[in-house]
Design a protein that fits this description.
binds S-adenosylmethionine, 37% helix, globular, seven-stranded mixed sheet, single chain, 194 residues, Rossmann fold
Length: 194
């Protein structure tokens, strides 16, 4: 992805009223794997500034629900079918979500640590976040539910991919074209929790 393509995504997001160009990574995954449907209950970890929530809330509609989590507050207004928990995701327990719904259809995580430039430290933190998303998914998802989590590729990613493939009927790693080409981020998809 060249700088000018990234700028294009930035301007497209502004024009379409999205809080961030991250939206186009989720949109691409959704177009390809059809992860979002009307009426779904969804968790969105690392949801600030709020573009994934904007997209998901529209896709799941008034009978659906999106519960977002971030350390930072949301930067854009959200629809009535959303809830927001401001906290560090490592403090979260499955019970923190049960007041919103007994179980969920999809767990999303676009959470990313603030990068330090020390590659292995950044990867370790990102893998820990993706593992947290995986653990919450196993506790909160209905059978057949799905997981999409960002992770920085490196030591520990392969083990996580193996775990996703064991827990779900289908496990995949996806690099959206809206990701910067030199970025080490990928998205792990688990579909159909066993
Ligand atoms: C790439 S941004 C997410 C963008 C979002 N998907 C959107 O479309 O607007 C990553 C987010 O992860 C959040 N984050 C990082 N560490 C976190 C933590 N320990 N707990 C909760 N959120 C965290 C950051 O605050 C940041 O907002």
């Amino acid at each position: 992805m060249t700088r000018s393509n990234l700028d294009n995504y930035y301007h497209k997001a502004k024009k379409e009223g999205y809080a961030a160009r991250s939206i186009y990574k989720l949109e691409e995954i959704d177009r390809r794997y059809h992860i979002l449907k009307s009426g779904m209950k969804v968790v969105d970890l690392g949801c600030h500034p709020g573009s994934w929530m904007q997209y998901v809330s529209r896709k799941v509609g008034p009978k659906g629900l999106v519960v977002g989590v971030d350390i930072q507050p949301l930067a854009v207004a959200q629809s009535a079918n959303t809830r927001f928990i401001q906290t560090d995701l490592f403090n979260l327990k499955a019970d923190d979500f049960r007041k919103y719904a007994e179980s969920f259809d999809l767990i999303l995580s676009d959470a990313a640590p603030r990068t330090t430039g020390v590659h292995h430290a950044d990867v370790d933190k990102s893998v820990a976040m993706a593992e947290k998303a995986f653990d919450l998914a196993r506790e909160l998802l209905k059978p057949g539910g799905g997981l999409v989590t960002k992770v920085f590729f490196g030591a520990g990613t392969d083990d996580l991919i193996k775990k996703v493939k064991i827990a779900f009927k289908l496990g995949k790693a996806h690099k959206p074209s809206a990701s910067k080409s030199k970025s080490k981020e990928i998205y792990l998809l688990g579909m159909g929790l066993k």
